User: Fold phosphoenolpyruvate--protein phosphotransferase from Acidiphilium rubrum.
Amino acid sequence: MLEATPPDPALPESGAEPFAAARRLFAKLRERLSGGNSSLAELAELIASELEVEVCSIYVARPGEMLELAATYGLRIGAVGRTRLRVGEGIIGLAAAKGELMNLPDAQNHPEFAYRPETGEDRYASMLAVPIRRAGRTLGVIAVQNIEPRQYDTFEAETISTIAMLLGEILSAQGAGNIAPTGLGDSLSRRYAGHPLAPGIVRGSALPFGRSTGPRHVLADDPAAEIARLEQAMTEAEQSLDTLMADHLPQGHATREVLDAYRLISQGTGWLERVRSAINDGLTAEAAVDQVGSELRRRMRKIADPYLRERLADVEDMIERMLTALGAGTAKPDDASGMILIVRRLGPAELLDWHRRGIAGVAIEEASSGGHAAILARALDIPALAVEAGATEAAQQGDAVLLDAESGALILRPDPEVTALYERALAARSSRAAELSVYRDRPAATLDGTRLTLMLNVGLAFELDQLARTGAQGIGLYRTEIAALAAARVPGVAAQAADYRRVIERAAGQRVVFRTLDLGADKMLPGEADDAVENPAMGWRSLRVGLDRPAILRKQLRALLMGAAGHRLSIMFPMVATVAEFRAARDLLEAEAAKLADKPTEIEVGTMLEVPALLFQLPGLLAEADFISLGTNDLMQFLFAADRGTPKLAGRYDVLSAPVLELIEGLAAACAEEEVGFSICGEAAGRPLDALVFAAIGVNTLSMSGTAILPVKALLAAADLGAMRPVLRELRRAGAAGGSLRDPLTAWAREHGLPI
Assistant:
């Protein structure tokens, strides 16, 4: 049975008058449509009178990307057939171009408003414009207006959206045009920028995919029967997911936890109750699911937080599975071998299904590197790219495509010269991969004999498979918050302890450094979002949350101690700003340890060094910490007051600059003198050139992603630190003003034939 959730506070109660009005309207529309003799003008008048709006207008798409006023109630009748707007022109054109509703309390003062004097609409302030879509095409726009300025509420917006679906059936039957016809641009090469989710370069044929058919039936007479259909569709969607997991992720497979977390989120966010409510208002099950999905897509575009966007993508994934069960989905090809999937959004269950069908790669318009689909893509070794908007619309099935999830680009219909360039790159990549594989079982050492320890940064248990694939020497950073984010909650003590024990056992005696929960900033659990702050990265996050809410931290520390019983335990605290904070966290750990009979054989406690203030407390910190791990990502943004999420600042400040290298070298020397472990675990550690420079200034432990281990090993094996250090010394002296040393270091490495 479907779970019940509290009603959305933005909506009126089910017995309220607006719902009764909507039911009356839908019943009258059903009666008019069944008769088949109602004009658009009559429908516009009916809608206006039942919804108590002063204007209802219907615009229809015409050839040449034009929108023509086809019917109105409230505007001047003489404007019908005369008033035309280009797609993107005015509020009507903007709604069509963006494919989303426009809800404006004062439309005439909107910067895109286009006044047409023949309509007489200068009296009306508020406007709600909703695109009319059918089978993936925009066929027109319906707009309601009122004299008084006001924001139309959620219920009104959903009612007009439902009417737009009905109008889509009517306009499609009448042969209305499409505002985005195929043209010359569909044969030209197009390049879309993006950022890699899972590494790889692949060439194939395009498979743009999205639900391209609308509900065949929109209104229903029997809500109880439609609820039964909905429940049956939910059961079928669940069974299809169970079958998918059973066939391709057998019990015990580590990636099942991602799909289990997806299942929890997709069923527990309240959207099912919204679907049930829409059915009770007179919609068919598929139309109700479609309407809720459209609302989710509209909300998703307004959410900045990538994690929350990913959670909505999980819900939409389940919606698509339900639409398929209801007969309103788009059929997938049984064999997608060699194809590159191009989609707006993708959930993990869908990705697993596409993997079964043989896709070679995937480009997703709305995705983040920490999302479920990205995590699963990395686990399944599917090259994946988060690509800029527009690629899905531009791609035609069968188009030649190059997906570059290394440098971040999707190229549709590439020119022959570009294809030849990538063919050479793919051949070189294949050869390079074979060359790198020989380093898996070799120690990380430079040509002149300096040994380094290379470790992994991971966040989920299945990523531990990379230990064997890369020859890494343990886990230098286990992000405990990733599993919590995937499950949308912090698990209980017993569940956490079991997870940590599995990680330790799979590491098979190699060191695992567990970082305590690093929540906050861009990593918020549902329901935990606080009031907006100007800079969340420097706000209430990480250890600050743990110390202010000690129950959460104590439970995790207890779970770590229980999970590591009989084994070595390494715990690292994030975002430490003072020695007092470190001491307080360590005291909590010691208090929890004192309560347990079964304990780890050894406990070492360290800290991330991300906050520059700790550099001025170094003697006190070295006296209390067993190890320090420098996090270059946060340290760089705090050191240079440069938000790492701001594209305009990307690359402006470099870790390979004289001031930063002096800081790292001094820190490494101080730790060595006090016999305190020191490592670097930020993104810079996994860049081969950066790793080589770190080795040259005395850093001997680096922690990085699995894909970086073998390239770093290969560069180290070819480099002589004795020959490099004098060059680096001169470059640092010449670059003391703080500029990047990357270009001259890269040139030196290439001159000496080093594989960077």
